[in-house]
Fold these 4 entries.
Entry 1:
Amino acid sequence: MSDQIQFIVEKLNQEPFRKNYNLITFDSLESMQLLQLLNDVLGEIDPKHAVDIREELPEQTAKRMLGLLGILKYKPPGSISDLSAFRQGLVTGSKPVIHPVLHWLLQRTNELKKRAYLARFLVKLEVPAEFLQDDTVADINKQYEELMEAFKNLHKECEQLKTSGLSAAEIRRDINAMEEEKDQLIKRVERLKKRVETVQNHQRMLEIARQLRLEKEREESLAQQKQEQKNQLFHAEQRLQRAQLQLKEMHHAVVDSKPESLMKKLEEEINFNSYLVTEKIPRELESKKNSTYFLQKVVAEPAMSQSDLNVLEIKINEVNAQMNQLIEKRMMKYEPIDSKFSMYRQQASIISRKKEAKAEELQAAKEEMSSTERQMLQKTNQAHELEGSEVLKGDEFKHYVNKLRSKNTFYKKKRLEIAEITAEYGVLQRTEELLKQRHEAIQQQLQAIEDKKGISGYSYTQEELERVSAVKSEMDEMKGRTLDNMSEMVKKLNTMVAEKKASLAPVIKELRQLRQKCQELTQECDEKKIQYDSCAAGLESNRSTLEQEVKGLLEECVQEESNYRYINCMKTNLEIQLQRAKEEVKAYVSPDPQERRKAIREQYTRMILEQENLGKKLREKQKVVRESHGPNMKQIKMWQDFERLMECKRECFLKQQNQTAIGQVIQEGGKDRLVL
């Protein structure tokens, strides 16, 4: 109980309650304060219940709270009489009733918020059958049910979107970025429109550009359709190749197999499937049904506390002790006649377990084989996508190997040709080197002759002059062409400048007038702005003073209202206490013994006497237990020794029985050999 109260206090001190309780202040809360606290927690779960209970009758409060707790599927512990006591305790604000409800609500606040939200739309209104005979009412009820189903579907989609990772902040950022891009695109389009309007026949050009865009989009769609058709054709060819491979494998299987082997395989499959259908699957189904039944039974029961769990553990220990006693009795009544049957039973159980294990292994092997086949198909598809061909088998692979061999011979021939060309290239390179050497020797001889004749450098100068003259002629041609182009460009630029000046002259005149007008309007705007700022400052100061006055009056009103409610609540509490005191005095003074027994004083005196008697009995019982503790411990030790002795005898008996069984088997085997 203390753990429960501590959990409640911790949760109430956190957001969104912020009550700042401790264990003492929480335990000292009165009934009305506890009810208001419970109502605040319910109001946090369902905002419709965020009301002040002092403004409504206790019956209305209890009815409203019971309705919400029923929607939230709260199950109070106990039977029907306890349920009536729970309702009475909820009306009076009893702590043993309010504390478990608070603990249950604060444990699962988020889940209960969701349930309360869904209950607003999914709690079906029960319409009487006689009203449903009317067509209008029936149609409205049908529409109501359809809308309820639509709400369920939308809520599921919303939950899926929430769990998918998309947040509202990211969506808002994306929307803002898209809006900014849209504004930029609009501005660019406006600028381009202004540029295009100055061009002649811009409407016709825009129409041609629009038609070009449409044709390009059509071309892209046709290309996409073509690609899709190619993919479909590719997949169809893949399916055809797979079907052909399967057909070949089936042909090979039919050719290699015999009717006897096929019948044997079919019999094995039939036996295995019949074992699964008749023994394994029904047993698993029965176990699943039992586990489901127990789980449903556990779910249907109310929430258990630690005390309930302790009681269940005690019961389980008692049942286990009874089972052990029954097993011991059975072992004591054990007869040697049943030994053979027990051995056969053990063998049968071992065989059945082996059979089940082998069946599970076979089923796992089949599942593994099917998964391996699926992986093989995936790998073949991936290989086809990467290399463009299927994995070859049989004759196709042999044909592919022959093709590779022919390509290998062709490759060797080409390699020989490349080697011959490389050798010829080496010869030509050597010839070139020799010719260069001869050219250098001839140049040296020519230079020596020129030195003898006194005209050294003549051949070199002649070559340079020829080269320079060729370069000069090329440069002259390029200069002539560039001068012609520049003159044409200058003419074009002059004409364009003249046209632009002529077209811009009226616009410049209008622009001058608009500039003058803009200056006048700017001066007028500045004057008006100064007037507006001064007026706005005065109004803002008046508004701030009025707001402060209104705020102060509102605070006074709230304070007075809270004082009134507090005084009214204290008055009602005092009236209730006074009424209780009058009833107590009346019952205590009454000559009727029945009325006197109803008095609280008499009840407490009776309870005190009962507790005193109970304490006396418990002390006597404790005394008896202390006196009998030593003999009982000795008796327990004797029983433990006796249990060890009996266990040792049982083991010796089982060993002797196994040895006798083995001797009987050996004797029977010897007799069979003698007969043979």
Entry 2:
Amino acid sequence: QEVVSEESEEESNGVNLMEFSDEILLHILSYVPCTDLVLNVRRTCRKLATLCLDKSLTHTVLLQKDYKVNKDKVKQLMRDIGKEIYQLNMAGCYWLPSSTIDHVTRCKNLVKLNLSGCHVTSLRLSKMLSMLQHLRSLAIDVNPGFDASQLSSECKATLSHVSELKQTLYTPSYGVVPCCTSLEKLLLYFEILDRSREGFMLSGQLMVGESNVPHYQNLRIFYARLAPGYVNQEVVRLYLAVLSDRTPENLHAFLISAPGSFAETGATKNLLDSMARNVRLDALQLPKAWINGSGLLQHLKFNNPFYFSFSRCTLSGGHLIQRVINGGKDLKSLTSLNLSGCVHCLAPESLFRKAEDDIDSSILESLVVSCCNLRHLNLSAAHHHSSESLGNHLCQLLSRLKHLLSLALPVCSITDVAASVEKPPTTPNLVPQTFGRKVRIGIQTYPRNLGDQANQKIESSVFWALMGSLRFLETLEIIGSSFSSAMPRNEPAIRNSLPPCVRAQSVGDSEVAAISQLTYLQSLTLAQLPNILTGSGLLSIGLQCQHLRTLSLANLGMMGKVVYMSALMDMLKHCKCLRDLRLEQPYFCAGAQFFQALSHCSSLQRLCIVSRSGTLQSDAVMSFMASCLEVIMCHMFMGESLTVCKNLQQSIVRSFQAERPALNVVIFPLLHEDLTEVIRDVPMRHLDEITLFKSRVAEEPPNLWW
């Protein structure tokens, strides 16, 4: 009886969730997916039934990464709260049948709708938009077969009021742009392939009957991102043709992201000249050919710029300071800067300079002082070598940027100058970074104990100090300046890789351990760190960075052996929040021990492994998929035979597709000639976010869309 009375007393003194105020409960419920709130939680009690339908929870519905949602759940959701929804995001819901879109018509008050990555035909789009008269923001895909002539007059009336439009184009078309006569923000993503599945060359000419008069007079933001390919360049020029005739007076952001060579034409030159005369910009990104060798930046006027991208341009540091930063004047408004691949951006001039020469620290210092509020900075894909001048190391100067949330650096930029100059390369680094015959070598001992590791001289290194000063950093990328992924876009897999920079030879386990100071780190990318001997720093990150959600590791240590496998498996046992894992390493063995360790990542949703001559154990993969119930994407490009890959892929789909509607499985030989055909069927969300390797820091302006 005494025990029972004590238990009842504890229960009476305990905290009852329902006793919290409505404000606190609403805040807690805001972290629950809307489908769970409406379809499950609100059925538990009367109080939650009322709170789950509060306007603060039903005003905006986000389904874009709710991988468990299906057609029936969407139908029921729209039936229950459709009239209360003002913003609906279904981006990337590739697994939902196109008929699901029909239920969106219940949301009569919709103002903002994102259907990027969803299957929508012209007729369905017309029927849906005819019912959404309050719509002002729209995101859609334009697929082959799209016909603007099928859009009804009621649909066009709705589009005439749309002020924000995002279009992803998979076929040459204007889409719905000509119908949007009130456009203020236009985002275009060009994903058109140069060849059809049958191998025929495609043309960039638009279909007969397409209107060629987009309405840009009210345009404030123009953004275009091109996938590789000549057709994409042809089509974007048609969109720009109208802009070159008359530049909108209110234009304040003009951004074009184009890989490779995108030549300037007379029309684009007229457009840029008109912009220089008539507008003041807040955000700018141009193809490198439009900037290189021109005096454009000297004539463009800026208001309160928040985003600049000069990715892959030959812009020198002297021009950067004089023409963009106005000789070091105050640029506190700038929050995002992308200088990826801008090899001379920290040098006074580029005419007689080699890419490997030391940087001019005064240029970087001017940049840091002027742009003191930077939150996103990308300096990757270049050799930024610091001189031996005391206090002028790149890491020391960047430590002044206390507001940084994301940072991308080349591996050679983080090494201590004295260490890289005085210390001879260790024995493992004398082995060529090739895929040739394996060589047996000795591996120097490295402290496995984290306490001993932290007490080494790394605490006095400039990179250790930088990590200590950026305690609120959420995204970090350390990428070798000569690194290239084995899986480029629309091309066969790369069979050989360039050797790492000489300055990067000393970067290894101790630098990785320094990253563990970033308590709030959410996304980490490490590529081409040649001096990884045991990977012991990875365990330190696993223990200390408990918010880590995305991890990408590529070509660490020796290329002929995965030297960090043991440390990686120890690390994964502590990554409870990890959702995305990408591994790219030759000779990677995806066996039972690896997948057993990976099974500890209970939140894992997406896995991608790229490995030339890599192997896998089918039984281990199946056991992993059975134990990790959240995994909806499994991409493996290995050295196994086509038969082994196909059989495993079919087994996974057959066993788990019914329970996981969003399941996407691609298992294929990395060096197979049909790899590009397989890649084109991968949903764009996965392809863009994890399968293809790229630097993502400052890739786009912050808050460009949702």
Entry 3:
Amino acid sequence: YLVGVGRADCTGPVAQVPLMGYANPDQVGGGLLSRLYSRAFIVADPQGSRRVVFVSADIGMVSQRVRLEVLERLRSKYGELYRQDNVILSGTHTHSGPGGYFQYTLFWITSKGLIRPALSSIVNGIVKSIDIAHENMKRGRLFINRGTVENSQINRSPFSYLENPESERSRYSSNTDKEMVVLKMVDEDGHELGLISWFAVHPVSMNNSNHLVNSDNVGYASYLFEQEKNKGMLPGEGSFVAAFASSNLGDVSPNTRGPFCSNTGESCDNPQSTCPVGGAAMCMAKGPGNDMFESTRIIGQNIYLKAKELYEKASQEVTGPLSSAHQWVNMSDVSVELNATHTVKTCKPALGHSFAAGTIDGVGAFNFTQGSVEGDPFWDQIRDQLLGEPSYETKACHKPKPILFSTGEMTWPHPWHPDIVDVQIAAIGSLAILAVPGEFTTMSGRRLREAVKSEFDSHGTRGMNVVIAGLCNVYTHYITTYEEYQVQRYEAASTIYGPHTLSAYIQLYRGLAKAIALNATQELSRGPEPPLFNVTSVTLLPSLSAENAPATKTFGDVLEEVRGEYREKEVAEVTFVGANPRNSAENATEHNFLTVERYSNISSSWRVVLNDASWDTRFSWSKGTRGQSNVTIEWHIPAGTAPGMYRLRYFGHYKKRVYLLRTITVPFEGSSSAFQVT
């Protein structure tokens, strides 16, 4: 094959923008723990014109808006080379990245609308990562390996899983998929290019009290792998690209100690995830660490170490033709043949009451509980008044789900949920990547993989390695099995196209697999094209206005100085007169907010040893009154840091008023005093 890899920043605005994932309106960005990246991999046939692009981006999920804009940019740049059938865009599902990049109304509610700078950063980053991969294509080889990851996940809806038939459950040793699949890429001289790992776990080690933008546990795994392979480079630099992509993580949590009542400390591992005192709002899962930062590192390191081992031992070469199959489908109206006599249908999208309960990884508001198969007259009444009552057809179709939001019947100012959904498979020799538009639960994913594998087998393409890539192309929430759907925990209440959603997808992906196996992908119907709503920006974000420094101070001045000396494992901290970090994101796409610098006696100059992409640094912004704000930079000095003289620097932009109505953006910087690390 010809192989190319690329990585580009897609962080976007790190302040004031709601973070996407927990749907908690209080969880807005207030700084940066680690940068977000888009990682692109292109595999092409050296003789022919066939190629496949796989992108894993450190974002909550790929939205339809992001995908349509990326495809438009690729078309204008490369013509018909990169298309909706051969480009897979997957989100890692971090819950600590900026939101606001959706065109469907439901997602505007918790992310304060459609936020153009956030959307543009993601689109630009994805396109740039593909550009870099495209420019770096070289002859190479691919190897695949798989293995088991321990101590890194639990099933967060075990009572739903138990609804699946005993005969099916008995074939599996665990209620989560512990298998990691690694694709290793080297050039023809054996120089390492990169890897993709697929593993099913929610990147929710960082909980919904976090305000620092970061890529969570899987992002930390990428960071460790890239730091190891790009020796001597700053984080985010260097040619080796390591993507830790999402899979069927629907019911899989990294919070391995399980759910406890945060007020009493007792377990709340019950079908409703509720506590005797305080109800469901008190039931939260704990990770393995003492705090969320440590838990993120522990889980991330587990995943990294297994990937490293599988990568080093990978010897099974991937060879064979490239192909890709794609259809757009109206998921609110699919007829599924369950057997010769029985046909069922999917439904218009709707969310159930338990959607509002959230999960043990991030509880909801108003004390909704998981596992509600009855509606609540109080909330139903409010819903009917504000949003309209669901139609009889939709209620009947979704049974036993009590509908909270009948999103498929809500169209103001735009539809609240998608009807047109992408289904897609890309095959690289013996590897088939199923790009799925949401979060399949453990058992849903197993059924889908098995169905696709048997479809390939029955058409003579035996021994395919089938992997699920999650959160691709358009976000449609969760996909549970029919049996899990019956008990209506969070994942089932969020299975928006009704009880037969999984059966519909299995039928559709079987059709794609058959087309690939029979080399008939060009005969697949394209399906109805998704809409691109005529909305460029609608936002409740505060506007960026002129800013001030306190009297006698200027931007970048130190307000609280570092100490003169620190030991390893201590935290060096400095506070500056700051400015809104959004100014920087809206001016320079790849703005670096901070550096840690070490004094070199040899060259008598300061050398940058860390930037803001490092997981050892934290950048926090806090807004004060009268247009003033502060920035605090922390360096958590790791064990093994070289002793010597260091300083912390800050780089920002402030808004300055020049006329009555006009402001300009002015760059500035600040530095702490020098301090000794001993």
Entry 4:
Amino acid sequence: AFPGTDLQVTGIDFLRSQNSRLHHTDAYDIKNLVVRRGQPFQLQLSFSRELKATDKLALRFGIGENPMKIRGTLMSLKPREEQDLSGWQISTIKKSDKECLVSVTSSPRAPVGKYILNVKTGTNIYKPETSIYLLFNPWCEGDVVFLADEAQRKEYVLNDTGFIYVGSAYSIYGRPWNFGQFEEFILDACMYLLDKSKLKLSNRRDPVFVSRAMSALVNANDDSGVLLGNWSGNYSNGTSPMDWIGSVAILQQYYKTKKPVCYGQCWVFAGVLTTVMRCLGVPSRCVSNFNSAHDTEDNLRVDVYLNESGEKLDRLSLDSIWNFHVWNDVWMKRTDLPPGFDGWQAIDSTPQEPSQGVFQCGPCPLKAIRDGDVYLPFDSKFVYAEVNADKVYWLVKKVNGKDKYTRINTETQGIGLHISTKAVGQDKREDITAQYKFPEGSEEERKAMQKATSFIQPSRILPRARFASTFPAADRGSKPEVLHEAVPESGLQLEITKKAALYPGNPLELAITVKTSAPGSWTVNLVGSCQLQYYTGKVEANLGYVKETVKLEGKSEMQVPLKIPADTYMKTLASVEDEVLIHITAIAEVQGTNDKLTKETTMSFEYPPITIQMPETAQLNKEFPCAFIFTNKLNVPLDNCKLVVEGLGIFKMTMFDEGDIKPGRIMKSEITCTPTRTGERKIVAKLTSTQIKAISTEKSITITE
């Protein structure tokens, strides 16, 4: 061939292993090159002949259906011109014979997604088979998701396992969850969601738009998104929300079928949204709020209606207090807001109420919630109410066949407790309440509350029951009442405790302690009730109540037992498909005074543990055995037991049918594992049965080369 032959590209090496190591993307189970924006990566080009000074060469990166330079969706990079107008850069590192090594740096503001690369030499165009994935970059100072702390980046971007905190404010426990953002098809599922979001490509630069869109797409409500929510108690035509142990199976099924997966409840939505955000490169964490206010109609108040036995009456309530609710925080700069609102932002994909016509929520700066700046986007009023509403208790008595409502008391510190997430680099709970709220009763809290209530109109204190036609119409001109807790003259206090472990099959041994502290003789009428309820606060069964009159002198106390036999609740436990909690309510009235007090507590049942037996370390690609052992220490059989286990980078999700496990029986299942990834890996196991919806555990193992 004579020297004037056309220059042709004969191949491109994406140098996947060295690029992905430097970009912290080596864990993604995908053949393509995955890189983060604003950071250089190298490509090795091979040509049909040696490069000459006169040769024209351009690398063209395009995103979207119709990439165009003018829209910033097509970048044409010429190694001789180094800088492109789009903020991308290219430089030649070395040339030898027929090869050329180039370094490409994308703009830290580039749209995130799948890019097609083609190389133009003169009139020839070379198109490699595979696309390049470009993600957000928390390691790059120029990226709005930049996170300075390496330990935090490890936790909030790279950790593919974690805990989601559930239970009740009285008994919080961590449920292990596999996020699995690096597993097969997960990145592709996230790219599919980005396309489905119909976000303009220019808005894909901005994690504010991306996280808001993902909060909408993880629920199926408007857009046939990932998960269908179901709180009905009937999950027969899908998977019960209690049965999932991670996001991987959900996102893989969704990507395969492109149809919503059945079913999710809040922790499942939050687990999947964490996976999606971490997968795209946005630092993210699951956040659990205990005693979370719902549907407060923008008035910062939840009304709780009790009958004369102290039992909660659901049918009257328009709003509810969930024992816990789980949402997400994502980390980013808010260039769309005044200074000072960067950092953690709350987003929520559980479909509760529409925002701008769609079931989506956030991002809302934690600082705006803490300071009471509830006019800032997005949905800050809604999140503020979840952590700051007041509880008003009403006693409902039948008078001449009609319901008569009396206000018992107001509790201003019962909502938004123990806001929790997994600690950085440790398997323990971190309390982040202080990032959402100032200390209860502090001067800052009072100021934030005043600011917030100037944007949220608290209504006057009238019960807002469904059938409240028996009330005088509210006078329109009246000022909203700011709630205060009354201080009882007797110094009345209530405490609810358990006297023994709450094992299914045993009687529930509970106690209500009545205390007075002021001098004098006090006669207290006490009622206490016990109910089974779902985590959403919905009552499933009334189990029994106690009524006593207690006489106390000055500073003294008395304990009133409340005992529920096992056969009162075991049928309910076996007939529902959700995990239920034990809810105790006490109402005390001091005779001859206006002192009235209500106290409620929710407790979780306690279960025998599962143990995992395996070596502490193992080698890459070498088999090791792993055993799961469970002893039924309860005095009731567990029917229809299933064990689900998963170890990311060790083995795919596996299910064992364990049949019925009688009291005292030991179950043992074994699996042979072959690790495919190094580092600290985790194995998660969950046992489900008719009586107990979930007992879960996890254990770590270190995999070496």
